[in-house]
Amino acid sequence: MNSSYSYRIYTTVSALPDQWDRIADGNIFLTKLYLDVLEKSGPENMVGHFIGIFDGMDLTGVAIAQFLDLNSMESFGNRDKCLKTMVRNFVFRNFASQVLFIGNNMLTGQNAYAFAQRTDHAAALGALKMATAELHQIYKAQGKKIHLTTYKDFDANEADTFRIPQFSDTYRFSTQPNMILEIDDSWHSEQDYINAISKKYRDQYKRARKKAAGITKKKLSLDEIASSQDTIYNLYLHVAKHAPFNSFFLAKNHFRVFKQNLKESFLFYGYFEEEQLVGFSTLIKNGTTMETYFLGYDETVQREKMLYLNMLYDMIAYSINKGFKKIIFARTALEIKSSVGAEPVEMFGFIVHANPILNRYVGKIFDYVEPKTVWQQRHPFKISEPLSSSVPGES
Hints:
single chain; alpha+beta; Aminopeptidase; 2 domains; 14-stranded mixed sheet; 36% helix
């Protein structure tokens, strides 16, 4: 490893080097404006750290780390009540409840670090590994033992860069895929997208739009987000608590702070029925990529109006109209996202347990911690499916 590479750990955004954003350029989720959102409105059980990688005196890399204490969570997820879930939660609390993420546990994709163009990647990753060791010592001094250290989320090519001696003790795992819709160059309007999908999925589109009669959509301003904060949070919490697994809950002021900091790079859309807010979706502009973020809805309205599916179509329409190249739909609801054209991209991570003996079995521990999802991929553009197949999201 290049011995001139070193690191420095920061606990506040105000302390970050002036050149930080220059290195982070190209990924909004590593910029000071976004990191300030986390500092001001991050989950209560999450503590953020920022890592600068230096080549001599020059900043050559930036990274984010998050410490999560899962013992403070009221619930890991209320949807599943089976024996395996109870076993998983027991294992999690006793062997994996205090976790250090190198990356962003609130997002999907490679938002862990960015390096300057001429950076020696192996040397920079080696410095990053040393920074995680120091974070372990910092928390140990506070009486907190980090069980697991996880580096996330990387595609296959990015994951291969971790094939260096410093990471020989880590277990490489594959988690749920990142659902990504590549926007065809020939699409210039929503109608172009509709024309590109097969009849079955055009019928799905028409049915969803017809079901949404009586629902109005509005882009909310900062003041409107602030004034509706309690309703917004309740809608978010309904969806979050019904997820199969949770490692955090957003702070109530999260969306307000997000809008305040990122302004027009953060879009908040409210869905109304008879002037009552019944759902919302959020989008983040990240260069030529549109990133979907958290959403919420009233379950009764969602089922009656196919609200979630309509939100997906609205996201696609906006992204096409504004010239974005792709949409990151992230994890969860894999089948319905594939029904609108998103393709799964396999993502990898690396995990290591602090206990050397348990680290030999970290793969088995991971199998209990990570919920498995069985789903059927849909192919609206190319592969015609049997007419008898049900359309996801119709229930």
